[in-house]
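From: lab user (bench 3)
To: helpdesk
Subject: output format question, protein + 1-O-alpha-D-glucopyranosyl-D-fructose

Hello, I'm new to running complex predictions and I'm not sure whether the block I got back is the full result or only part of it. Here's what I submitted:
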Amino acid sequence: MKKTWWKESIVYEIYPRSFNDSDNDGVGDLRGITEKLDYLKSLGVNVLWLAPVYASPNDDNGYDISDYRAIMPEFGTMADFDCLLSEAHKRSLKVMMDLVVNHTSDEHAWFQESRSSRDSLKRDYYIWRDPVDGHAPTNWGSAFGGSAWEWDEKTEQYYLHCFSKKQPDLNWDNPKVREEVYSLMRFWLDKGIDGFRMDVINMISKPGTFTDGPAGTGQYCDAGYMVTNGPQLHAYLQEMNREVLSRYDIMTVGECGGTDPEGARLIAGTDRGELNMIFQFEHVNLDGNETDKWAHKPMDLALLKKNLARWQEELHGTAWNSIYFNNHDQPRAVSRLGDNTPQSAKAIATALYLMEGTPYLYQGEELGMTNYPFRGIGDYHDIESIGAYRQLTESGLREPEELLDAIAYKSRDNARTPMQWDKTANAGFTGGTPWMPVNPNYPAVNAASEEADPDSVLNYYRKLLRLRTVSPYKDLLVYGSFRLLLADDPAVFAYLRTDGDRTALVAVNLSREARELSFSEIPEEIINGLSGAQPVLTNGGGQGFAERMTLAPWEAACWIAG
Ligand code: TEU
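Helpdesk reply: Thanks, we reran it on our side. This is the complete output you should expect:
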């Protein structure tokens, strides 16, 4: 398997709005990130993924871009960005930007010109359609509630927006649009950035004809479902690779909902000439469903680990996995898979980040930051949560109280509360009034307190990341093959990693009860090699390996033989 720096990297996603506020306006900013580079370096990550920092009216917190070549004023200036990039590089920290090119803001100059008249030279930069029988062209619904079609009175046509009506979809079938995108990519790459996370990139190729889909929530069919993995997707990604990506030593990851391992190999296959890896969504949809995240049900661990194992086995040697459970769109994993305790946070991290693939941490997970105690719909800021509540209650499909429980559990706002730096006011995030309230648990869950505690989640993450990046076991844990163990155990996630010479065994009890284990399925020579071995990493008492053993609640360990 070809060794590369992006396979050996650890990525840390920063949601700038909530990371660190340097000018006390209540909103995080670029200078605030620069202030924290030494902290990030000390964590052991080496790539920083910045959620969008471009000019935006913030209808969807920056995922609605009005100028790709300007910085959002509340985040700072282009000089602040250049300083951040330079200071990061001085510390051998790479910087990955968020490329949002399935859609723009409706305030982008392109859209303003496109909507000005049917004869505009930029009319077909976007997707305009006539009414059908006096109503929207299809029954497609926006990810944020309501129809995915918005009527434009002036030109008497609808435009498509798979997300908010302020996020009109670009028409990627227009070669002028593709060239505009490649040009803006070169602008940032020529400044020296180190890669792109590509927002809903497998939605860019729309089907040749638009037809109604199976009505899902309410009277709509999810537009994303109808446009995912479209007919020209690979042609466009291969063109993007030829025209731009292949000319730089960079890292790329495509956000690709609705994609299985076979689809992932087509986008991120070693010899495909498209992207390096993708974010898949099968595992984070297991406690909901593909078309309705609010259809909440408990996470089934046996299903989860079999899904993760399938991705490990099917991409080994043919493509490359990303590994994540946290990001700015997902609720906090420690609240979703754990019980909000530091021990469960360490257990989840051990289970995830010793698998094959590039780990993607999200700000605050290294502290054990948890979901926020939301109460009423008025507590939320996220357009997705608010839109879902409105659509599902007004249509009578869900009872408000029951739906609020599901939203409290799954809302993206859970990941967007301010980073918890210390015990001072607002957790040290801002000297002003934070744009979102700080989680009330910050006096116990914060970076400063955890720096001083050798058993903190923060210091456990440091040990875990060192094991993957600088220990003698680095190549085994980055490139070794994966084999699931105890497949039917409903609480323990255990697996082997091997490179032919050495073998690592990872065992994690993801439950509140002690679990007795028997590793009789492991070949005898491996058992013999592991017997008595002390763990190279554990959140427990450090028991030596034995074929039969008991793991305490949330106990995790990794033993290595050879
Ligand atoms: O998210 C893609 C998307 O479909 C989200 O709705 C996400 O899948 C869902 O919230 C998870 O339950 C990307 C960005 O990550 C998200 O922040 C943006 O809102 C969205 O695209 C539009 O740009």
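A quick orientation on your result: The first strand starts at residue 11 and ends at 14. Let us know if anything else is unclear.
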